[in-house]
Amino acid sequence: MINIQNVHKSFGDLEVLKGIDLDVKKGEVLSIIGSSGSGKSTLLYCINAIEKIQKGKIIVDDIDVHHPDTNQDQLRQRLGMVFQQWNSFPHLTVLENAALAPRVVKKMSKDEAMAIAEKELIHVGLGDKFDVYPTKLSGGQQQRLAIARALAMKPNYMLFDEITSALDPELVGEVLDTLRILREDGMTMICVTHEIAFARDVSDTVAYFQHGVIEEMGPPDQVISNPQKETTQKFLSKVL
Ligand code: ADP
Ligand code: MG
């Protein structure tokens, strides 16, 4: 599981995370919602050690993420991450993109890496795109490729940072459907998202972030359908 205890994070004088506590258990889906600038992305970067923290603790399985002795490469192999912007290699085919990290990072043979990549591409609905170059894909297909690339590393957890925010509205559904499939598979996920209906449907827990604190957290039936706090109600009335 992922266990986050009293995490504080500042950029200079700006305190961006002000004591975050949360747990994500195996097989659970946590959605994080909240206004721009509330610290959602920063928390994801702290979980995979892209950013340091000033106080508190983050545990991933048995790994103390910010301990100086932690092997961050091993940590990151457990955490797949997909961002808002597509970040594939344009000079490699879809299949080569998906096979790259298993080959380079896990030192798999070409055949082994290709076999895993093919399987994950089929999984996200790109079984007919192996030999295509990513620039020829739609935005939704590019995001599904990014998901397949992350899955090819066999992570224990997937972290998604607003992966549908840059997409044309008609392409959002296919990417969210892919996340629903992962959920059915039992993948443990943290989804930072503006898709409130999606968060309500798929999450075990929803956390509403405001100014670096969790204002309200609980099952979607509470946080989205029946928020207890006025701040949460206000936010939802703007985005729903
Ligand atoms: P969100 O993802 O919720 O929109 P972020 O985590 O990206 O919010 O940012 C939270 C705050 O931290 C914002 O005020 C942002 O400007 C600031 N911030 C984020 N990254 C940096 C950085 N590398 N250096 C300085 N300030 C940053
Ligand atoms: Mg963000």
TrEMBL record:
InterPro entries tied to this protein: AAA+_ATPase, ABC_ATPase_HisP-typ, ABC_transporter-like_ATP-bd, ABC_transporter-like_CS, MetN_ABC_transporter-like, P-loop_NTPase
GO CC annotation: plasma membrane
Localisation: Cell inner membrane
Keywords from the UniProt entry: Amino-acid transport, ATP-binding, Cell membrane, Membrane, Nucleotide-binding, Transport
Example GO molecular function: ATP binding
Superkingdom to which the source organism belongs: Bacteria
Membrane-topology annotation of the record: Peripheral membrane protein
Residue ranges of domain ABC transporter in the record: 2-236
Principal cellular location given in the protein's record: membrane
Similarity field: Belongs to the ABC transporter superfamily.
PANTHER family named among the record's database cross-references: AMINO ACID IMPORT ATP-BINDING PROTEIN, GLUTAMATE_ASPARTATE IMPORT ATP-BINDING PROTEIN GLTL
Protein name: Glutamine transport ATP-binding protein GlnQ (TC3.A.1.3.2)
Protein's organism: Reinekea forsetii
